[in-house]
Amino acid sequence: MLDHRGFSAWITVDEQPLPEYLVAVDAETHRVSCWIPGEEGQTFKVWWHDHGGKVDTCSFVVLDGLVVPGRFLFGEGVASRSGIRASHMTEKPFIFTKVPQKSEPGEETNKDAGSIVLKIKRIKRTEGRPSNPVQQVTSVAASGKKPVGDLCIGFGQEMSTALQYHATWSVAPYDNDKSGATKPSTYVSFVFRYRSSEFLESQGIASNIKRTIAPKVGDKRRISSVPQLQSLANTLATPSPSPPKRPRLTEPTLLTDQGALATRRTPSYNEGRRTASWKAQHPDNATYQGVFIIPKPQSYDGATILNTLLPSCNSSDTSADDDLT
To answer: Where is this region: Disordered (predicted)?
Structure first.
């Protein structure tokens, strides 16, 4: 887990945080970097934690140079991002994959290739605006000159997710930021440089990395029966002998003797009375009898209606247009 300026960030695969190697902190630019292992086919999630700065923040995730909207946090809490929206109700998960083909002639080298960057900006929420349009993306995050077969970031199969809010917030720089800025500046950034486990070990960056093989789509695991469970199933399947029948009485027992009759009791007159409820009376001088009060309809403008659609939690997407620094 990387920590700096009251924030933490980490990346998980299968709900487990990835190990981080050669962590470096640039105090001047407030930038923390490290190396992490990645394997083809693994899906991953980017996490970050505001430890109580009490200032609203917006964040952005940069995958191989492609900016993906992050989340808002309202001065504290934890947020995450695991995919890019494909529609208002679906998303494509982040996934480690291989470069599918050679770069096109004339393509420039991508200086951000091989990195996952989380940028956090301190902001002021100003007013509501319509939610972000859905980004159109290819199978990989960004293009550029990169050897075929190298590890890169792509997007998995489309899957259902939480419904996108109809509105989000416009933002302005936080009051304590440098004056004159029209866009929020980056308060802290976390850089995760990903490579294969073989590369990290060959370069001496890491050693004895625990490898996990991502399951391929369509693979099914066959589970054999456990001997103990199988014997238990056989035992339960064996029919048990029927319980013995109860002996029938030779003759019915009649309550004809005086002792039995003496145990019977007839309820008294008072016990048999039925309690009646009092009838409610309305005062004759009540002013509200027969009067229906209809509330006056309220008029709303477009801004008011938009603000009512804003999410009440820290799950609204940020806008990539605000990520300029």
So the answer is: 232-279
Pairwise CA distance, residues 22 & 33, whole Å: 8
Span 208-224, average pLDDT: 52
Q: Is residue 274 part of a domain?
A: no
Please report which confidence band the pLDDT of residue 322 belongs to, taking 50, 70 and 90 as the band edges. low
Closest to 74 (Cα-Cα) out of 58, 89, 87, 61: 58
- Is residue 197 within 8 A of residue 37, CB to CB? The reply is yes
Instruction: Characterize the bridge pairing of strands 31-37 and 21-26.
Output: antiparallel
Whether the per-residue pLDDT at 34 is higher than 80: the answer is yes
Q: For residues 221 and 223, what is the distance between their CA atoms, to the nearest angstrom?
A: 6
Six-digit token string for 297: 């309809």
Task: Decide if 261 is inside a domain.
Answer: no
Residue 249 lies in a domain: no
Q: How far apart are CA 45 and CA 79, in angstroms?
A: 10
pTM for this predicted structure = 0.67
Give the single-character DSSP code of 141: S
Say yes or no to pLDDT of 236 above 60.
Answer: no
| Average pLDDT score over residue span 299-304 | 51
Angle (nearest 5°) at CA 44 between 43 and 46: 160
Which has more confidence, 292 or 107? 107
Domain-embedded: residue 257? no
Query: Is the predicted pLDDT of residue 108 greater than 90, yes or no?
Result: no
Number of domains composing the chain? 1
How confident is residue 267, by pLDDT bands cut at 50, 70 and 90? low
Residue-number span of the structural domain to which 82 is assigned: 2-216
Please answer whether residues 138 and 156 qualify as being in contact, where contact means their C-beta atoms are separated by less than 8 angstroms. no
